[in-house]
Amino acid sequence: MKFTEARLEQAIINLLEKEGYPHVLGRDIIRDPADVLIKEDLKTFLTLQYKADNITPGEVDTIIRRLETFPASALYESNKAIMKMVADGFLLKREDRSQKDLYIQLVDYSNLTEFRVPDVSEVATVVAEPLASYQAGNNICKIVNQLEIIGYEKRIPDGILYINGLPLVVFEFKSAIREEATIHDVYVQLTVRYRRDIPELFKYNGFCVIRDGVNSKAGSFFADYEFFYGWRSAPDGNVSDGRKPMEKDEKILCRYPQYYAASKLYQNIKAHRRPEGDGKGGTYFGATGCGKSFTMLFLTRLLMKSVDFASPTIVLITDRTDLDDQLSGLFVGGKGYIGDEMVVSVESREHLRQLLKGRNSGGVFLTTIHKFTEDTELLTRRSNVICISDEAHRSQVNLDQKVRITEKGLKRTFGFAKYLHDSLPNATYVGFTGTPIDATLDVFGEVVDAYTITESVADEITVRIVYEGRAAKVLLDNAKLEEIEEYYAKCAEEGASEYLIEESKKANAQMNMILGDPDRIKVLADDFVGHYEKRVSEGATVAGKAMFVCSSRTIA
Hints:
Strand order of the largest sheet: 14-15-13-16-19-12-20
Number of helices: 16
Number of strands: 20
Radius of gyration: 29 Å
Structural class: alpha/beta
Strand content: 15-25%
Helix content: 25-40%
């Protein structure tokens, strides 16, 4: 039995039905062929969802008309505006102007994270002019296949997932038994032909799913093909294979490690937040390719939009200026998404003190850990402060006292993290790291979620890493060998105490003379070149990377 496109389509429909999405044939939906909304579903949802607020038929019709008036000719801008309405909701000015504006959400998110009612400046406003099956809260969900849509040409998408009458997800398939049809052809069908012929459908599109019977990928309608990724459907990563478009028309689609990490961290922070909890919001272990910066952004949105947290203050902490600059650019550009216009890169500890002074909620402040040593005064005792630390295995975990012997006697100091925790004693701390160590877990709590290098390689984010141990024979004269022996003997006798740091540096200078010996470097270089050329000649290497690790820049 051949696994045709029709069978592939039916298999996907069956999977969605098992998840609670009823299947409806396109021909069974009563609508104008040019309509892409299922208006009756949207009317039913809004009428029942806001029944207690006495929403009127005229106000419901106003909302639908507003959605329809976004032009398909300006597809990116229209999609951006509609997606913000879907994600953040909007305020409806009532027909009866004496009534308070009504906060409308087109999707019921209460089973996930209940949103707080936003300020007027955060969302759009719609001005009103003077029974179905349910799943996931009060939402009306349907998987519809073979729906004929007449735009500039007639097109029939393989599948559309409707939520409350909105076509939020579009599916397109090609059978794997057709050798001439690739998953890239599916991408072209969606983003070229459908965009040209039925652009109205994609005003409402959250994301697209493409599949060839073997591979499945999801991505933004506006993204290049290379930015479509597989999605592992379970947190343990035991399922299938799925980048973000930058520049031009951007639309960032959350990847699966980011979704699971942000969701789990949110719940863990909620369980451990002060004053009731221990303030250990959890550790996220993310290998290369996890999209750490975007995970922080998604987590911040969850926290800022949540009713439970009631607009906390977020402090994002890095240990390098370049990381701080990178996060600042991302978060400043994402103010509207986060839901707070106060996103500030902190210049100094005093600057942060002034920003926190008199503030009871809200605000996203980005800083480096080193600024917390400028003084030791309290910044705030508030408990609705969430500190998110990047590189939480380095300078952000040194809480213990350090003792050094100097010419002036015994000197006691503390690490950067100690000053941070003393400054914000009632904050809840979350750590992001690619190298979790015991000290990380002691400060931030257990690993809540992880994205490993194995998953990164499987997702084709990271190239496969191959390690082969090699020993290049290097002959040194006896005098230099004796220097090495003396160096290690001294380390063994005196230990790794911090008061010997200066002496160790001097010893390292001698080691650099040995490691940087020209004859030694020449032998190593010859070995690298010979080994690489041999692999190329044998066909073992077509394309790859080589990394040279040296003890100093001079040697490199």
